[in-house]
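tokens incoming
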């Protein structure tokens, strides 16, 4: 049996699949990842852990937004075959939850319903002074730093480096992984915690990692596929 046939077999025998996704699921939608071969960390002169930190947001708000708006514009981006395949698995009631480190909203755009966004979303914003809510249209149509009607600075509902993860999303994720019979980790370098640590809660049968590069969790997985995600899901679809 080759890798794809094995993966197909695992999906077939599982009824409580949970998927943890990272930036690699969205590279084929045109959004660069951080640590892959064409990742943004190679282009940026300032480390991303600083550029996207809470400290930097408050101390260099203009520079923060200049980078953020160029890189995270949600316009025109569309779900790719991986997002769509996961939506189909949910419709078939095999997949119970997607836990994502991504902030691009593409799983929801693909129609997936149970999505835990551990690092928040580029679609939602709030004023740091009065907490009034804003959407991305408002923020991306403002020049420079977006301001609230009260004069306060508007901040993305994204978890920046140095900030806590949303408690609900984290608790729901732990519960989902603990109950899963299959865990798939897709397109993540698994170096960002606590997201990567969720794997430790898995007690089920099949633990699958699909990623271009090696990860430090590869040796713990039942199946590791070092291939492009779109190619893998195209092959899965072809065989149906
Ligand atoms: P990462 O550290 O950039 O790792 C991505 C991994 O995916 C790398 O190991 C790549 O080799 C692999 N990869 C890239 N493209 C593919 C592909 N097509 N097929 C298979 N493998 C691929 O990203 P992580 O998600 O692990 O790191 C977590 C950070 C990155 C989170 O805080 C995210 O918010 C943040 N991030 C999010 C986005 C987004 O929302 N789309 C984009 C970039 C970074």
């Amino acid at each position: 049996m080759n890798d794809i046939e094995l993966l197909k077999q695992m999906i077939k025998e599982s009824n409580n699949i949970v998927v943890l996704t990272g930036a690699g699921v969205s590279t084929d939608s045109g959004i660069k990842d951080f640590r892959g071969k064409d990742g943004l960390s190679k282009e940026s002169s300032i480390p991303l852990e600083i550029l996207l930190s809470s400290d930097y947001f408050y101390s260099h708000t203009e520079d923060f937004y200049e980078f953020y708006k160029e890189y995270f514009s949600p316009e025109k981006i569309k779900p790719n075959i991986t997002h769509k395949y996961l939506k189909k698995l949910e419709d078939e009631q095999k997949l119970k939850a997607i836990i994502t480190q991504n902030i691009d909203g593409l799983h929801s755009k693909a129609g997936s319903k149970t999505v835990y966004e551990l690092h928040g979303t580029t679609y939602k914003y709030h004023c740091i002074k009065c907490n009034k809510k804003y959407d991305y249209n408002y923020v991306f149509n403002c020049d420079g730093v977006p301001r609230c009607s009260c004069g306060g600075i508007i901040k993305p509902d994204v978890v920046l480096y140095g900030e806590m993860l949303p408690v609900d999303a984290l608790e729901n994720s732990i519960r989902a992984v603990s109950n899963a019979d299959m865990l798939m980790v897709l397109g993540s370098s698994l170096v960002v915690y606590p997201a990567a640590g969720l794997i430790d809660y898995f007690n089920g049968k099949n633990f699958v990692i699909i990623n271009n590069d090696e990860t430090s969790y590869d040796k713990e997985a039942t199946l590791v596929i070092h291939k492009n995600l779109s190619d893998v899901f195209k092959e899965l679809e072809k065989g149906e």
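note: The chain has two domains: 1-31+79-119+165-240, 33-76+123-158.
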